[in-house]
Amino acid sequence: MCYTVSLLPYTEGLHGKWMFSEIRAVFTRRYLLQNTALEVFMANRTSVMFNFPDQATVKKVVYSLPRVGVGTSYGLPQARRISLATPRQLFKSSNMTQRWQRREISNFEYLMFLNTIAGRTYNDLNQYPVFPWVLTNYDSEELDLTLPANFRDLSKPIGALNPKRAAFFTERYESWEDDQTPPCHYNTHYSTAATTLHWLVRIVSKISPAATLPLIIVLCAKSPNYDYTVCKNGNVSVPQELIPEFYYLPEMFVNSNGYHLGMREDRTMICDVDLPAWAKKPEDFVRINRMATEAQIQSFGQTPSQLLIEPHPPRSSAMHLCFLPQSPLMFKDQMQQDVIMVLKFPSNSPVTHVAANTLPHLTIPAVVTVTCSRLFAVNRWHNTVGLRGAPGYSLEQAHHLPIEMDSLVANNTGSNKRQITDLVDQSIQITTHCFVVTADNRYILVCGFWDKSFRVYSSETGKLTQIVFGHWDVVTCLARSESYIGGDCYIVSGSRDATLLLWYWSGRHHIIGDNPNNSDYPAPRAVLTGHDQEVVCVSVCAELGLVISGAKEGPCLVHTITGDLLRALEGPEHYLCPRLISVSSEGHCIIYYERGRFCNFSINGKLLAQMEVNDSTRAILLSSDGHNLVTGGDNGVVEVWQACDFKQLYIYPGCDAGIRAMDLSHDQRTLITGMASGSIVAFNIDFNRWHYEHQNRY
Q: What is the reported pTM?
């Protein structure tokens, strides 16, 4: 939805509705073909679009808003001039194409980036994000993603896939006679409000209320059934592409609202979308389409603002990245050697928490570890693994192991700066949930104290910097969201009082809360209720704006970051005691229950997969793209699974001690596990190769 704003009250209106500290990105936008709009993205992942009287007003508003640029995701300065830059300037200046070429981001992420900087937005149905048709085979029982014939020719626009139709449009363009209108191949754009609503007709309740009236028109004018032959033969009068939801929202194919969508020619009622034979359920259809985007797409058509006037550069193949040169000393036989290094701490206390904040731009890239005895270590990370094969990489760098033990711990010279001595409640079991490390490695948050607080400690000095109260009983678990500008993030605390509190961590002030003058009494952003027992595990995803939590017994609950209870995730029979939760930004929630039981839920509550393993799992994590699940437990075995269906991708040789915690380096190529023996182990990770081998096997 776009709000039209008059000249005078715009700043007051913005101030009244949001705190300026919540603004994360500001983009200039076109509205009704005029460059008079702004889209403001907030910390809770919502965005609002405003239309102003003229471009001068737009510039005034930008200079009245926080200096956030277009956010931190695209490698661009956080400057107001960036918010005012043209789409082509944003494209040329960002690092996203290079990241895409190096396969650091997925095709989906890259396409969303192109849509966003080109001016496409969920707030304007006439400029809705557009995604390409990719597959052409909608008839086979099984779909082979290694066959080129199953893919669309992406060098051609949708209207040129059929040679006869392409010739027709070309002839019309070349014989154009209307002097009042510039010549064009197609009378309609490949994305319109009508086609967008056509795709989304079955989930109208989730569409903006402003869409209700045009939706009725669409329902009357268009068939609500989907025509897969569009991409198969290109024989269409309206050359329409797809929307992003085709690649992440299986609910759009299900008529869960029970709408009357008309009848087919055979007099049967139209209800759910008829899926191709190779998709047994909507989740299969979305997952396979997502894989085919990932497998094939190499070029891009024009969006409302043209980004490219030259060919788009190609992407490196996945298998090329699997075989980048390795250090001859550390990786003599990379394909067989799984373990990079083992680091043994002097204390012998089980390593119960691992946080790998290893981005090169950090002042201290490190793997922070915390033991059961609450001795922490800031172990410096050397980016040798991430640099393999990169420009400037040298053998001198390769001689170093990636993790260097904290010298204060190794030499036992300053353990007082690394020991958390404040008393915890005697009934608390120290687990990985008791700790959170900030994204810059500078602070450690700890819970479990007898006074019902959780506390913030400096990782440099070990000193207590803040005590946070809010619960009526002992705080039992903590979780951190991904970070925003300057290290800002959400912190969630769960308690024996059966509630959760959502807090805001200020990376600028290094405190819970926005006001450094009131750090003794910060207020939570939201109170999350619904459990009737002690909360034992929680995960928060700022990208989705959701908190998923589990109590000692009963279903896990899904809340918004504003505190609304959305739904309960009901597991199968005997799946009663959740202990670990991991959520992907794509909307999949992995829950581990006692006795080796796993479930994969969509955030809309649908059970997608389940499995049982012969291990007492202590740590789980999802890869950054959400496709891979890594697990470890008392058996000392790290296993890698395909998250969507729990198919095993890889199993490492067993360790001589149980696994208590784990994390992945930022480049997703090193796994660090905390062991019950007081060690950490660094493993090589190769998700690309395992998926490639898995596809070849099946």
A: 0.83
